[in-house]
Amino acid sequence: MWRTLAFVEHVEVEFSGNLINQALILGDVDNDQKEELILGNIEGDLFIFKGDGPSAWRKGSDLGMITCIRAGDFCNRGKNNLICLTAEGWCYIFDIKPDGIPEDDECDGDRSVKPAYTQHLPANGKVMLIADTDNDSQTEMVVGYSDRVVRIFRWVSAPEGEPYTSGRIIQLQQWQLAGQIGSITVNHSQDGQCELMASQPGGTFVTLLHDQGSHSDSDEPKQQCLIYHPLGSSRARNKDVSTIIIGGISRDKKDKSEPSSTYYALATLDGTLSLVESDKILWSLQVDHQLFSMHKMDVTGNGKEEVVCCSWDGQIYIVNHSKEVVRYHFEENVAGFTAGHYCLTSEGDVPCFIFATFHNRIFIYYNISLPQVESINLLQVINKREEMQHVLTKLNIDPQNKESLRRFYQWCLYGWQNKS
């Protein structure tokens, strides 16, 4: 039986318009070592929230139909930028300044932001990833499109002495997949190398291999650059159901000097969730809710990241590596969901769940840390205390007699119960 949680402490902020889930993120966009909340709507408005204020700290407008937002060091300058992609194919790079830094042309006095760089890329991008995908210590941008194509882009720096915005984005490689792309992720194999993965319908995924001999203008990707993994097809209720994947799930390896592989998880819209390591399904569970968003987060502080899934009707599942589950039900239907760290006060980032509703409201739940995910047995916990063993000995209670222990603890907690 799964335990149910009740999260209470939250902050509400307002936004307007309709958003796509890939356009709702948490990230440090102004390089102040504190996470912000960023979202964009299909009407072309960009919102950046900082702290517990009810209104946006920065705002952009007239950008087009925003489909994807990510934060990261895409330009490989040692600083994060905010990257925004629209359905029309416009890629905007924002250079957000923190409070106290003199404003420039990219940020007007009324706190509205303008792109530092703009370039047109192929249209209809639906998922985006900013990460080092080929183990060269350089960050790339990977975009999955509605026509089942995945393209990888890199920033080419400007000549020395010129502004970094004089650089440009080039395409490195592309792949044509068999099915619709649900999400893109990076996972670490047993030798510590990065693996680029894209989810495919029916609880499956594909590994995208870099072809060192390919050129950026190649229109015919080689099929040997794709490795399909049908591991979840036998468990899927619907072979065509949309699937999402997330990799790099920390498993708390003790020796940090050795290469450490990570877990990855897959979730389907019809409610199947699986944790996988090297094509081996460690566990799989099925729920009665449509799962559309999945994230990883260490909610217990033990170094192991749990899998956090959200359904359209607001059901949240937090699952650890041993398949123990806790649930939380949000009070409204959900238009978008993300999980991560957000800075509400000067104390720094705290774990948060972010819910976007269909009524132009964002709910930030911030007191979500758990002591553990698994259920606790009172007898086992108390019996581990050395002082309790001395008490039981003085009272002549056998610590191996569970029935005697239950009666004793019941008396300690509730006293004697009179039976009429």
Notes on the structure:
With 420 residues, the chain is mainly β. The protein has helices at residues 378-383, 386-394, 402-414, and strands spanning 3-4, 10-14, 19-27, 36-41, 46-49, 58-60, 66-72, 81-86, 90-94, 117-120, 125-131, 140-145, 149-156, 168-176, 184-188, 194-200, 204-208, 226-229, 243-249, 263-268, 272-277, 280-286, 291-297, 306-311, 315-319, 325-329, 334-345, 348-357, 361-365.
Taking the alpha carbons of the first and last residues, their distance comes to 33 Å
Strand content: 35-45%
- Work out the helicity level: under 10%
- Structural class determined from secondary elements: mainly beta
Shape: globular
Total number of β-strand segments?
A: 29
Provide the gyration radius in Å.
24 Å
- The largest sheet has its strands arranged as 1-26-25-24-23
How would you state the average pLDDT, rounded?
A: 88
Q: What kind of sheet is the major sheet?
A: 5 strands, mixed
User: Total helix count?
Assistant: 3
Low-confidence stretches: 214-223
